[in-house]
């Protein structure tokens, strides 16, 4: 169980004085893009449904200030369900015996991206478990092949922890961005959620290395994970403010029945949207995905995230036959859709919220005038 956002859980109502104080803190965060540790905690300890709409409104204003109503689309290719790591919440971690495992070949990955390019995508997110099959040499070959075929694209990698030299080689080959969620900025919670051969310090070192090399870097965390507290969420906010990543992926913890953490409650849509909105207010230029997991929690979850500050969606362009096997959480939506169906569905959802689909490369706002590598 977790111990976050108690008044949301209890459907509490605040006194007028408390509501005013929360709104003043939200305004301060909007204007200054930073709060003190105690101020963040006051919001999380006291916010109720009555104040969430104001929070979402200010987060939406912050997004509009920098990105207008654009939603950037990225074509997602899930290349492998093999993983050497032991994240206790993940359905494809190394200790899940019944997980279905697959790997895409270089040719399959290129084919997915070629199909995605025809559908209009100009950023491809190559994501998988930490699978040693994908050596530096193989990934360099894939990256260079894609960049030689399509000069007007960005390549985002999400392949977990690698050493500095590996990250540097992939960057020099043409990778533009790297997504590596820190998962939690609390050492206590990190160690609760991961096996002891995994390192809280190593994860942070990897993110620091990615920034040093020059990637557009994505961090991020889960909301509602077992034993998580408001103090842990405050640590996430403070860490993200200091790291200042270009992207932040925030998703709910979704309990998987085949993992060591089975039987726990999942995170909720409201809890997750509150954290998306707070990150938007303090990291106002960051690219924030509206994740598929939110659509698993609520049919309109992804749309609601757009109004809480999110501005990226990642339609799946992986081979349909493998999508169910990439089961990092259960009941994942859209696994049976073709890439064409997914593309059309996402566009309709975005337009229904009076947002604009942007099929450009969608760089971080301060880098949008830069040259393609």
Helix/strand order: HHHHEEHEHEHEHHEHEHHHEHHE
Spatial extent as radius of gyration: 20 Å
- Taking the alpha carbons of the first and last residues, their distance comes to 46 Å
> Within the CATH hierarchy, at the fold level, what is the topology?
TIM Barrel
Derived from helix and strand composition plus strand pairing, the structural class reads alpha/beta
Q: Care to describe what's here?
A:
The chain is of the alpha/beta class. The protein has one domain: Aldolase class I (TIM Barrel), CATH 3.20.20. It has helices at residues 6-9, 16-32, 37-46, 49-67, 106-118, 136-149, 164-173, 187-193, 200-213, 230-243, 269-282, 292-297, 301-306, 320-323, 339-352; strands spanning 70-73, 75-80, 123-128, 154-158, 177-179, 216-223, 247-252, 312-313, 356-358. The strands form two sheets. A six-stranded parallel beta sheet has the order 2-3-4-5-6-7. It has a three-stranded parallel beta sheet with strand order 8-1-9, with helices on one face. Helix 6 links the parallel strand 3 and strand 4 (154-158). Helix 4 (49-67) packs across helix 11 (269-282). The chain is globular, with a radius of gyration of 20 Å.
């Amino acid at each position: 169980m977790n111990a976050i956002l108690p008044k949301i859980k209890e459907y509490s109502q605040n006194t007028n004085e408390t509501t005013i104080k929360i709104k003043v803190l939200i305004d301060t965060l909007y204007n200054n893009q930073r709060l003190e540790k105690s101020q963040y905690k006051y919001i999380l300890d006291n916010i109720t449904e009555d104040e969430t709409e104001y929070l979402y409104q200010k987060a939406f204003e912050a997004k509009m200030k920098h990105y207008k109503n654009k939603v950037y689309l990225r074509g997602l290719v899930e290349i492998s369900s093999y993983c050497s790591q032991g994240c206790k919440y993940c359905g494809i971690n190394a200790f899940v015996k019944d997980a279905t495992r697959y790997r895409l070949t270089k040719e399959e990955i290129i084919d997915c991206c070629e199909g995605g390019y025809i559908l209009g995508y100009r950023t491809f997110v190559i994501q998988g478990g930490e699978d040693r099959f994908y050596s530096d040499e193989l990934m360099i070959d894939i990256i260079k092949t894609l960049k030689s075929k399509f000069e007007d694209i960005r390549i985002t990698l999400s392949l977990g922890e690698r050493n500095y030299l590996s990250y540097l080689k992939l960057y020099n080959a043409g990778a533009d961005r790297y997504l590596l969620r820190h998962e939690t900025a609390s050492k206590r919670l990190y160690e609760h959620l991961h096996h002891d051969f995994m390192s809280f310090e190593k994860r942070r070192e990897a993110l620091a290395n990615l920034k040093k090399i020059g990637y557009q870097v994505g961090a991020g965390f889960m909301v509602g994970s077992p034993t998580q507290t408001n103090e842990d969420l405050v640590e996430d906010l403070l860490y993200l403010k200091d790291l200042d990543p270009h992207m932040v992926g925030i998703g709910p913890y979704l309990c998987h029945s085949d993992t060591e953490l089975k039987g726990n409650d999942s995170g909720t849509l409201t809890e997750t949207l509150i954290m998306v909105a707070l990150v938007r207010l303090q990291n106002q230029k960051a690219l924030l995905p509206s994740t598929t997991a939110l659509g698993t929690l609520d049919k309109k979850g992804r749309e609601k995230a757009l109004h809480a500050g999110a501005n990226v969606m990642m339609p799946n362009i992986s081979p349909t036959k493998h999508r169910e096997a990439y089961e990092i959480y259960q009941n994942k939506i859209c696994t049976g859709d073709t890439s064409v169906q997914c593309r059309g569905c996402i566009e309709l959802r975005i337009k229904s919220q009076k947002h604009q689909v942007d099929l450009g490369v969608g760089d971080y706002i301060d880098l949008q005038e830069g040259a393609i590598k």
